[in-house]
Amino acid sequence: MLALTVSATAPAAAQADTAVRPVAAPGAAAAQSIQSVQALHASAQDRAYLRQAHRGNLAEIAAGKAALRRSHDKDVREIAWRLIRDHRKLDARLREVAHRLRVALPDAPSAAQRDDLDAVLARRSGHRFDRAWLRLEAGAHEQTLRLIRRELRDGHSGWVRDLARDGAPAVRHHLREIRAELDRHTH
Fold this sequence. Notes:
The structure is a single chain. The chain is mainly alpha-helical. About 75% of the residues lie in helices and about 5% in strands. The chain has a two-stranded antiparallel sheet with strand order 1-2. α3 (about 45-70) runs antiparallel to α6 (about 125-155) and α6 packs antiparallel against α7. Residues about 1-25 and about 30-40 have low confidence and may be disordered.
């Protein structure tokens, strides 16, 4: 909490320049210092979240590019473009926070993520590809939402928790779009 003080002994001209100054209330500086340390410190949970979310973003970008190459469905391609655009934005902010916290990030999706995408790409085309791709994306976004919930529950760094909180609406929106398109492809 900040208290405002006015100097009664300063000349009027000086008061005009410095009439209102914030003065930290007792304990406020300590609370602010604790928050700063927490923001700068990444717990094991925070580091794991940053790495997994980064890999997830890379996997979504790769999957979106694959759909643009393989799908001929206008709606699937629009979802793919949106995933690429949104996950690039999410990842740019994530990389910034990871840099500030000195957390090294992997440079590629996990082997399991690459294998899952390869399985969708193998021997599938047309509507079979679209359905398999949409199922893959639905599962990936569900997993990302679980990752976000875990970070919000167990995370330590305010910066990382803010990333998770701010990214959740985009991930939920993607999941709704993917599920709606998947329903259209299965009926």
